[in-house]
Amino acid sequence: MKKNKIGNYLITILLLAVCLLHTGCESFTEVDLPSNQLTAPAVFQDRATANAALAGVYAKIRDTGFLRGGANGIGSKMGCYADELDSYADATDNTSFFYTNSVLPTNPDITGWWADAYQIIYSANAIMEGTDASQALSQQDRDMLQGEALFIRALVHFYLVNIYGPIPYITTTDYRQNSQAGRVAKSQLYSYIIADLTESIEKLPGQYNNPERIRASKAVARALLARVYLFNHNWAEAAQTAEAVINDPVGFMLPDDLDTTFLKESGSTIWQLSAAGQGQNTEDGAHYIFTTTPPPTVALSEALMVAFEAGDLRKEHWTGALSDGGTTYYYANKYKHRGLTDASMEYQVVLRLAEQYLIRAEANLMLGNLSQAKQDIDLVRQKAGLAPTPAQSQQQLLAAILQERRVEFFTEGGFRFLDLSRLGLLDATLSTVKPGWDTTDALLPLPQTELLLNAHLAPQNPGY
Q1: If we measure between CA atoms, which residue out of 13, 5, 2 comes closest to residue 456?
Q2: Structural Rg of the chain based on CA atoms
Q3: Distance between CA atoms of residues 129 and 141, nearest Å
Q4: How far is the CA of 61 from the CAs of 218, 348, 359, in angstroms?
Q5: Measured in Å, how far apart are the chain's first and last C-alpha atoms?
Q6: Which residues share a beta bridge with 298?
């Protein structure tokens, strides 16, 4: 079979077993704080240490797994897997396997994303359980911490199901239960994600508890919930939830100057991940911007570059070019800083306002509200210096939304792959531009190491 894809492994959450059974691995009953480790009872006896524990979970999201920036994040790897990025890495480099759609169950990113995801989920569950058991925290603090943990748990499961397909939905730190967990159907997974986010919104404060928007608030959870509703075809709920974010009292706004979109003070940012230290910026800035030719790892694809309309300011402000005299290579220039600055200028943006307008547009379109959909499309286009869309019919407007999402969110969080997947357009779009594309590449393989331990979670995804 093409790619020597291996069938019928057994699956489990190996990380949970290792972390609980071996003292050499960080335990999630001992939450990693900035300066030391505290046992769970000590962590949740004090508001400051409980907040520090949760800050450690946000740091794990920034530094590991799907949402980290740079070469190992979903933005770069799935940009190569779809049609956003061209790979210039060595043929033996892991990036090349994504670019040629020849990923195997032994791929280190496949294994790492899975393990990191369930590690973060385990951390969120530990916070849920620790706050439940605490007699010292106020109800307000307990609600805030649990609301953030629920948001994180939903967020990570969302990416897992869209990358791997049916997966376990883990809500406890009980290893015995987790090690026997089975894969859950996609429809049921979405119901769990929606339930977690709905409860999260109830518990979270309306205002950010940090002005840098690096912790979850009601608006943050609503922004993710609007996306989940859209992916799950809950059109009315998606439109209403996106509208609630757009009209949130915080006062989000689309920037007039596109160069400010990804600055850490941007008014369009709903949620971002803070830098690891003073003066540090994003891994994306260091990864995508190159100063030599040919590019060392990736460059924006020709297919993406020709997708920009004439006069689109996003092409001018969010891409850069470098020529060797014969060939011009393009790079993502959303984040402008490749290294250290006196003070951190940019944080990794995960949720921003433009997505909410396009969610509301698509949801209204599916509800038959074409004029409202067109208004939101045109608002995003106006900020990019473009005239109103000429699209009129529902089919034309849906194509216009997909086009706007393509040139708005390139290299961000795997948007392109996720959009083509949810709209059933992967084969039609990628089979003509990716010689290695197979229909079964719509899902990544489950990690081989995980499949060897839990018979309850077989079989492997088709094609592997």
Answers
A1: 13
A2: 22
A3: 14
A4: 19, 11, 24
A5: 9
A6: 87
pLDDT tens digit string along 275-301? 999 999 999 999 999 999 999 999 999
Average pLDDT over every residue of 221-225: 99
CB-based contacts of 12, cutoff 8 Å, min separation 6? 179, 181, 450, 451, 452, 453, 454, 457
The three-state (H, E, C) secondary structure of the chain, written as one string: CHHHCCCCCCCCCHHHHHHHHCCCCCCCCEEECCCCEEEHHHHCCCHHHHHHHHHHHHHHHHHCCCCCCHHHCHHHHHHHHCCCEEECCCCCCHHHHHHCCCCCCCCHHHHHHHHHHHHHHHHHHHHHHHHHHCCCCCHHHHHHHHHHHHHHHHHHHHHHHHHHCCECCCCCCCHHHHCCCCCECHHHHHHHHHHHHHHHHHHCCCCCCCCCCCCCCHHHHHHHHHHHHHHCCCHHHHHHHHHHHHCCCCCCCCCCCHHHCCCCCCCCEEEEECCCCCCCCCHHHHHHCCCCCCCCCEEECHHHHCCCCCCCHHHHHHEEEEECCCCEEEEECCCCCCCCCCCCCCCEEEEEHHHHHHHHHHHHHHCCCHHHHHHHHHHHHHHCCCCCCCCCCHHHHHHHHHHHHHHHCCCCCCHHHHHHHHCCCHHHHHCCCCCCCCHHHHCCCCCHHHHCCCHHHCCCCCCC
For 370, other C-beta atoms within 10 Å of its C-beta total 17
Neighbouring residues of 256: CB distance < 8 A, sequence distance ≥ 6: 383
Average pLDDT score, the chain: 91
Residue 154 tokens, joined: 């939903």
In percent, how much of the chain has pLDDT > 90? 88
With beta carbons less than 8 A apart as the criterion, state whether 255 and 313 touch: no
Q: Tell me the C-alpha distance between 403 and 413, whole Å.
A: 17
How large is the greatest C-alpha to C-alpha distance in the chain, in angstroms? 68
Residue 305 amino acid letter: M
256: burial class by Cβ within 10 Å (0-12, 13-18, 19+)? exposed
Give CA–CA dist 57/145, Å, rounded: 11
- Mean pLDDT of all residues in 20-43: 41
Q: Which is nearest to 267 in space by CA: 219, 200, 195?
A: 219
Residue of 364, 380, 253, 220 whose CA lies nearest to 309: 380
Whether the CA torsion 302, 307, 309, 313 is positive or negative: it is negative
pLDDT band at 41 (very low <50, low <70, confident <90, very high): low
Could you give the CA distance from residue 335 to residue 333 in angstroms, rounded to a whole number? 5
Q: Residue 40's pLDDT is what?
A: 60
What's the rounded Cα separation, in Å, for the pair 332 and 195? Answer: 36
